[in-house]
Amino acid sequence: MSTGKKVALSLLIALLVIVVGLAIIVPLLLDVDRYRPEVAAHIQQETGKPAQIGRLALTILPQVAIRVDDFALGNPPGFPSGDFVKARRIYAVVDVFALLHHKVVVNSLMLDDPAINLLSDVHGKWNFENAPAKRAALVDPPGDEKASFTLGVISKVSINQGQLVAANLLASGAPGPAFMEVHGASLDLRQVDLNAFTTASLGGPTAPPGALAASAGWLLAVVYAAAPQAPLVAQGTLKADSLQFGALGVTKLKSKVRLYPKQVFFDNLDMDCYGGKATGDLSLNFAGENLRYSTDARLKGVNVAEFLKTFPEARGKMTGTAEGTAKLNGEVTHSPDPLAGIRGAGQMSVRNGELPSLQLNRNLRLLARLANLGPATGDPSSFSSISTDFKIAERRLSNSKITIVGKGVNADGSGSMTMGGEGSLDYQGVAKIAAGANPLTNVLEGASGATLADGSLTLPFTVGGTFANPKFSVKGGGAPGALGVAQGVVQGKAQPVEVVSGIAGMLRKKKKPQ
């Protein structure tokens, strides 16, 4: 090795030793942890919330930063005991040159494993927006000891593996069920205007004196940035392992995020949804007595059976693959069922599925089989497609047009069902099955309002009962005795032998007057 290379290598090693030595020695000389009680007290004074800090430390590599271990900010007065935000570790990267001039300028913040718990009281006040407690005027020390801190705009705020739970307080003061949960969230915000947050909600913080300013001001910025639902002005991206909104859950969520005072917009949402995909937009408005939400969603390839598993009364009632669009909105109420006020409209279609509990094909095709009216093969509960529009309002789901394409049986209908309790059904429709003119079709035409035309028997029907136990009936329009036989056929209350005998008896009775 040449002499020049040896000298360069020696200088590089010496530089590395100096850097490593500074990284070890400087934090020891600058023991910021001694300011921990004062910092916690100042945060509580600024925010009106109890604050706890496990440890403060100064790190040099890879960047100059102040590290906070085991940080917790409790709920304000008027809310149940507990923490509004907790973070295992927080890094605040600061401007070194500003520090030399006794100024704290935070370039970026990073929060590891934070847990955020949002609560709203019955008046619409949130645990993140309380007014600060009154405080005495702080006097800066004279001369060169004076320090300053301004929140300003932080270029980057990152959250890694965050958890968020949102709930309303009930009239009793106890927390109601969580209406939203986010797990495994990674949030990356750019150009975060913390002044917009403090001006809108808490008011601008007063700079503390001396060393306390250097160790407390930046941490106030951490507190404000820790809750992205707080009134900040920022934008960025969000990724999350899972999102639960009421009973509905999605995974592998990705979205752009825009934050405004008391408003959050999730743009270009993309997520896995019960074996399929969901895309769209979601907005949350925290102003007012109740949180308001609005979404415009598009669904594709959703496994209906997996989706219905989230509703105990609907499990196993339908299969197939769904796609469609929906626009939904509502308010999160302070009640045991916070999402009861949901409303909206959309279109939906389900393909290649089954309706095991209804078995429309079985009910109607029994008639076809007895009189050779049409084919009688295949699963009687299966269908090729169901398409419908829908409206949701006042805890009721309404469909103005439903089209069912079955295996040998088609149907068109309309009606509504309640979305609470057992889900009472009130539907009516018209079914068509292939048929030709014969004694049975003549009986059905006279007994139940059916019509025979163009090789098809058109039969009006109703569906009542509940979602778990639907009741299928032929819509009456003729002679009571004949209608009773038809009802026995389609409701499965009569054995085939009994049905055939009954039909034969009807035909004999019909011939006597002639």
User: Main beta sheet, described?
Assistant: 20 strands, mixed
Helix content: 10-25%
Q: What is the oligomeric state here? A: single chain
Structural class: alpha+beta
Count of DSSP strands = 22
Beta strand %: 35-45%
* Radius of gyration, taken over Cα atoms and rounded to an integer in Å: 34 Å
Mean pLDDT, all residues: 75
The coarse overall form would be elongated
Q: What is the CA-CA span between the terminal residues?
A: 125 Å
Query: What's the domain count?
Result: 2
Low-confidence stretches: 16-29, 135-151, 198-231, 370-376, 477-483, 489-514
Report the total helices: 10
Question: What are the salient characteristics of this protein?
Answer:
two-stranded parallel ribbon, 514 residues, 2 domains, 20-stranded mixed beta sheet, alpha+beta, single chain, disordered C terminus, 24% helix
Give a topology summary.
Layout: H1 3-29, H2 36-47, E1 51-59, E2 65-74, E3 83-94, H3 96-100, E4 103-104, E5 106-120, E6 148-149, E7 153-168, E8 180-193, H4 194-202, H5 210-225, E9 233-245, E10 248-260, E11 263-273, E12 276-285, E13 291-303, H6 304-308, E14 321-332, E15 343-354, H7 360-370, E16 382-393, E17 396-406, E18 409-418, E19 425-434, H8 439-448, E20 451-453, E21 456-465, E22 470-474, H9 480-491, H10 496-511
Helix pairs in contact: 2-5, 7-9, 8-9, 9-10
Architecture overview:
The protein has two domains: 28-129 and 145-259, no CATH class; 355-511, no CATH class. The chain starts with a helix and ends with a helix. Mean pLDDT is 75; it is low at 16-29, 135-151, 198-231, 370-376, 477-483 and 489-514. The chain has ten helices and 22 strands. By secondary structure, the protein is of the alpha+beta class. The strands form two sheets. The chain has a 20-stranded mixed beta sheet that branches. The protein has a two-stranded parallel sheet with strand order 4-6.
